[in-house]
Specification:
Length: 58
């Protein structure tokens, strides 16, 4: 977020942060609906939101 803020200002920082938050909440909801319980729900939502970086960088 610091990089986005330094190049684009506060407005785009809030937009990007809101996008990540919305995606995380959506992932939490989907995993919970599919039967996830407890910490598993949070872990799987976290991986869905932020875990893709492991596949982008070699």
């Amino acid at each position: 977020m610091i990089v986005v803020s330094s190049f684009s200002g506060a407005r785009w920082t809030l937009i990007v942060a809101g996008g990540f938050t919305a995606w995380f909440v959506l992932a939490l909801t989907v995993v919970h609906i599919k039967g996830g319980r407890g910490r598993e729900v949070v872990r799987r939502a976290y991986v869905a939101t932020f875990g893709w970086g492991d596949y982008v960088t070699p």
